[in-house]
């Protein structure tokens, strides 16, 4: 009996430093979490990517608590569940709200697990999403990556078939014998689904409810979410658990009945379910609320009902924008759905062929390009006006006086700076000698220019003369506009 405690003692674990020395830790800093900067390679499809996910989960090379004091403690089953949802997306462009509905996690948890996948080199940004106040949030698009540590650990050989292509496009050319057994185990794990763990209350549920949950075969935390069939090959808005029943054992024993396994849906194209008429209406409505500023904030179902005619006719959002360009848009919109209904009235009957719609889109594109060039010319002209030393005033009477003063200066054959200033001062004194009505008109013209953001009439005179003619208030406003116009932090627009 005295020897039994010695036998039960566990063997000492190897030091952590030795394990890290053999297999270096996985961590990709935030600055390198982009596809162009990634050292890994793009996964060919979701199945091979899930093999790398399970390898990272079981390797223990990534420890989140080394880099932060909050969030998940390890690369666990919850991270694998999030990766399973990403493996089914093509392209991999998940929204946070979508992953929250599919996994039942909180928004912060989803963000933490996406960060874990990026830091382990399993995800890389293609386009980073934007979240601007007052606008619809844009989801990030990721590339599913296989880190180089996975290839090194399993002895996977890669080759770059196109020398001009980036390094992340290299393909697998072979695998070492030592890594085949581990690859087979990872393949079995990738073929299985990691499901949400059942709560303790679920074990006390009645047997009928437990069987219903087993027949559904999908884990989701939202009751309104579209449920999948047991084999995940088709979708329906009605739960399959309430309508699908297994055949009796007598029919299965005879071998004459068909297999209860649901057939592969023929309504999918490229891995996605083909949209019906209602789906196309909602898709067009969602794109219109994102593309047209005066429709933002409108109800998508209401816009789908308003645009049902053009959506059923096969119009795209570009076709609708081209049509609205020719119909005209209001400057102030009080009810966007009502205005859209008026503008789209009879559109599908006028542009009833794809050729007519293509011609309208071409004309709209030409008008957009012409407007863009006009804006560029305006910006160039405004920039040149502000960069020059002086521009003639817009008032006709003042322009004549200034041109006369310059003509006298040009006629002078010799003279220093003082003589030129004295001569110009004489011209300004002539302006001061104008009658009361002319001086009042000059001040009114200066006030009108200031309301439009122009200061050329006041700045044409020296500060002392400008104060004597226009007063201190107008001169002060002109100086403020001048400082704002030459500042890089402000922009003055003219109507």
Main beta sheet: 3 strands, antiparallel
> Beta-sheet strand percentage?
5-15%
The number of strands is 9
Taken together, the total number of domains comes to 3
Describe the structure.
By secondary structure, this protein is mainly α. It has three domains: 16-191, no CATH class; 277-368; 395-485, no CATH class. The protein has 23 helices and nine strands. It has a three-stranded antiparallel sheet. Strands 4-5 form a two-stranded antiparallel ribbon. Strands 6-7 form a two-stranded antiparallel ribbon. Strand 8 and strand 9 form a beta hairpin. The relative contact order is 0.05. Residues 1-11, 13-23, 202-259 and 416-427 have low confidence and may be disordered.
Outline of the structure:
The protein has about 500 residues and is mostly helical.
Q: What keywords describe this structure?
A:
495 residues; mainly alpha; 3 domains; 3-stranded antiparallel β-sheet; two-stranded antiparallel sheet; 23 helices; 51% helix; elongated; disordered N terminus
Topology:
Layout: H1 4-8, H2 16-22, E1 41-42, H3 46-59, H4 77-87, H5 96-103, H6 107-119, E2 123-127, E3 141-146, H7 148-154, E4 156-159, E5 171-175, H8 180-191, H9 207-216, E6 227-228, E7 235-236, H10 249-254, E8 268-269, E9 272-273, H11 277-291, H12 300-306, H13 308-312, H14 317-327, H15 336-343, H16 347-350, H17 354-387, H18 396-411, H19 417-432, H20 436-451, H21 456-459, H22 463-470, H23 472-485
Antiparallel strand pairs: 1-3, 2-3, 4-5, 6-7, 8-9
């Amino acid at each position: 009996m005295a020897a039994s405690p010695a036998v039960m003692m566990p063997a000492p674990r190897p030091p952590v430093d030795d394990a890290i020395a053999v297999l270096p830790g996985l961590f990709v800093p935030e600055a390198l979490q982009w596809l162009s900067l990634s050292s890994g390679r793009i996964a060919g499809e979701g199945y091979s990517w899930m093999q790398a996910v399970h390898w990272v989960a079981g390797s223990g090379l990534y420890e989140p608590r080394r880099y932060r004091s909050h969030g998940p403690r390890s690369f666990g089953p919850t991270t694998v569940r999030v990766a399973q949802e990403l493996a089914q997306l093509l392209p991999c462009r998940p929204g946070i709200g979508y992953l929250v509905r599919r996994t039942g996690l909180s928004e912060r948890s989803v963000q933490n697990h996406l960060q874990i996948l990026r830091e382990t080199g399993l995800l890389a940004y293609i386009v980073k999403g934007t979240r601007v106040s007052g606008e619809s949030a844009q989801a990030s698009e990721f590339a599913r990556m296989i880190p180089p540590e996975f290839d090194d650990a399993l002895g996977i050989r890669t080759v770059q078939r196109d020398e001009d292509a980036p390094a992340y496009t290299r393909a697998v050319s072979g695998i070492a014998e030592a890594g085949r057994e581990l690859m087979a185990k990872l393949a079995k794990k990738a073929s299985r689904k990691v499901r949400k763990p059942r709560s303790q209350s679920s074990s006390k549920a009645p047997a009928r409810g437990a069987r219903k949950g087993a027949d559904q075969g999908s884990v989701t935390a939202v009751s309104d979410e579209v449920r999948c069939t047991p084999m995940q090959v088709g979708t329906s808005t009605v739960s399959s658990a309430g309508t699908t029943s297994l055949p009796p054992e007598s029919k299965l024993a005879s071998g004459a009945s068909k297999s209860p396994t649901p057939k592969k849906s023929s309504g999918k194209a490229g891995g996605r379910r083909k949209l019906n008429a209602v789906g196309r209406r909602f898709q067009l409505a969602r794109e219109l609320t994102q593309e047209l500023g005066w429709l933002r904030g409108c109800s998508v179902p209401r816009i789908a009902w308003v645009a049902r005619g053009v959506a059923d006719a096969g119009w795209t959002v570009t076709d609708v924008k081209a049509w609205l360009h020719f119909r005209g848009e209001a400057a102030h919109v009080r009810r966007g759905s009502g205005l859209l209904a008026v503008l789209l009235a009879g559109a599908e009957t006028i542009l009833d062929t794809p050729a007519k719609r293509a011609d309208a889109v071409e004309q709209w594109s030409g008008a957009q390009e012409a407007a863009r060039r006009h804006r560029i010319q305006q910006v160039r002209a405004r920039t040149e006006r502000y960069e020059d030393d002086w521009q003639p005033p817009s008032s006709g009477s003042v322009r004549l006086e200034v041109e006369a003063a310059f003509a006298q200066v040009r006629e002078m054959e010799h003279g220093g700076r003082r003589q030129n200033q004295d001569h110009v001062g004489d011209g300004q004194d002539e302006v001061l000698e104008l009658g009361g009505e002319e001086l009042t008109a000059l001040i009114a013209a200066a006030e009108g220019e200031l309301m439009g953001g122009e200061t050329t009439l006041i700045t044409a005179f020296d500060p002392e003369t400008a104060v004597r003619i226009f007063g201190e208030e107008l001169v002060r406003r002109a100086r403020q506009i001048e400082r704002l116009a030459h500042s890089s932090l402000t922009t003055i627009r003219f109507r």
